[in-house]
Fold this sequence. Notes:
Elements: H1 5-21, H2 23-32, H3 38-51, H4 54-57, E1 73-74, E2 82-86, H5 96-112, E3 116-120, H6 127-141, E4 147-149, E5 158-159, E6 164-167, H7 170-181, E7 190-194, H8 206-213, E8 220-224, H9 226-236, E9 245-246, H10 252-261, E10 268-273, H11 283-297, E11 304-309, E12 316-319, E13 322-326, H12 332-338, E14 344-347, H13 356-363, E15 367-371, E16 384-387, H14 391-408, H15 418-421, H16 425-436
Parallel strand pairs: 1-5, 2-3, 2-6, 3-4, 6-7, 7-8, 8-9, 10-11, 10-14, 11-13, 14-15, 15-16
Antiparallel strand pairs: 12-13
Helix pairs in contact: 1-2, 5-16, 7-8, 11-14
Amino acid sequence: xxxxxxxxxxxxxxxxxxxxxxxxxxxxxxxxxxxxxxxxxxxxxxxxxxxxxxxxxxxxxxxxxxxxxxxxxxxxxxxxxxxxxxxxxxxxxxxxxxxxxxxxxxxxxxxxxxxxxxxxxxxxxxxxxxxxxxxxxxxxxxxxxxxxxxxxxxxxxxxxxxxxxxxxxxxxxxxxxxxxxxxxxxxxxxxxxxxxxxxxxxxxxxxxxxxxxxxxxxxxxxxxxxxxxxxxxxxxxxxxxxxxxxxxxxxxxxxxxxxxxxxxxxxxxxxxxxxxxxxxxxxxxxxxxxxxxxxxxxxxxxxxxxxxxxxxxxxxxxxxxxxxxxxxxxxxxxxxxxxxxxxxxxxxxxxxxxxxxxxxxxxxxxxxxxxxxxxxxxxxxxxxxxxxxxxxxxxxxxxxxxxxxxxxxxxxxxxxxxxxxxxxxxxxxxxxxxxxx
Length: 437
């Protein structure tokens, strides 16, 4: 029997009383929701301002992480490390970007023969996060005995002046930039792993301009994909050695298997990479484009099935009796099992990094439609059509892809050439290690 309304109100009241009376309970609740108590935040601010040099304190308040790495104590009698700085580190939230960062950490450390350390700048992480992180690093990445420092551990921690650093998200690069202003970090020792144009993830604001400034901090850039480099060169005027650019990691063997399992049938399945909670994936534009495609197809649309993957959402009426049916977020193995059933893919991203879904689909034989981004996606792959981000242009491109699939069927396995996307990460890490060693 479900609980009665009065019982629910009573239980909720007890929870609220516990929240008010117990500081430990408040901290646990806020940690679960990715937040900190005001007292915790104030305590961190006071400690960092008390310890940071005057040259760093100028930057206090620009962003949350400004002083985080300016509270370190230089000490030549401690071992040197390669330090990976992350906005946060949670074992249950290590996806493509963080996994790539850990691969970079392991690769550089092996080349310069130094132990590794991971630093998380989020205010709300606790010891159990570090414990779970060490297990993940050991079991998934083969990294043993990794030191993990949380934000509250940093003030007064002893670091060797000869440490090597890896910045990831722009907030971590900003923290290292401030530490370099305070002469605590050598700029030439910092590898800046750039995986998207992150100023675009914020409104035009202090955060936007601070994010842009990190590209000009004098760090050694390591750029994920040639299209992203093209945008950085055009927008920021960066001069990045071509050997410091690498291709996104694709599972070539699995994609070849997907291509081999594709076939032709009486119906065409269109897969839409739809994530309503991620603005840069243009969910609403994708829906409008699908509606336009169904409208153009008319009676042809009766043999088209449209599904979305990436995130749960309600079914969406596309008109003409067609519905966008959500599959939600898929496990990795389930994704590769489903991929060969969809020979047409719509995947949008309003940022210069080319994104995995459209490239994986094109490489494995699907006909793919995406949005152009300042010319960075032209000629990436013969089966990838990049058009202006409008329902008319995307809808027409989808219709062309559906008709091409019906006429020709899927394509064969066809990797993207190095000059279009970037070289192997291993080659880039060797080049980086020669600079920062």
